[in-house]
Amino acid sequence: MKIAVVFLLLSTCVFARLGETKDQLVARFDNPVNQGISQITSQSRTMVVGPELVFVQKDWSITCDLVDGRCARISYRKQGDWTEEQIQVVLAVNKQGGKWTEQSGKTVRTWKRDDGALAGWSEADGISITTPAYLHAKAILEAKAKAEASVIPNI
Known about the structure:
It is a single chain. The protein is of the alpha+beta class and 155 residues long. Helices cover 31% and strands 37% of the residues. The chain has helices at 2-13, 22-29, 84-93, 132-149; strands at residues 34-42, 45-57, 60-67, 70-78, 100-102, 108-113, 118-122, 126-130. The chain contains four helices and eight strands, in the order H-H-E-E-E-E-H-E-E-E-E-H.
């Protein structure tokens, strides 16, 4: 019963969800405290993946990276220690109809969703969840950077 109450309270007030649009995220949290760009570095090049929105609610910071207008990578950080219930709620609200399977131990924990999404948790960094859409966009940018790096200049 206690876990159900915690899940209900936390899932309705704190957690953004993968797949949400900017408008849905703003409706849930109000305006972001910071807006930037999500970037990767490949072949010594910095490339833009998409917009990045940072929201703060109570002791939580939620960073959402958008790909094609939808949240494709999300990171949760909070003040204080994480409880197992908080970890499970974050995973539950981001399962998108899939199932998470834990891949590791207690210090740094990782999960894989049956569609290929990845989640990782550590006490220092919180939880980050990456969808296949983000991984695909990243792979395209890395391939582009590799192709550009392999061009031989006209000397």
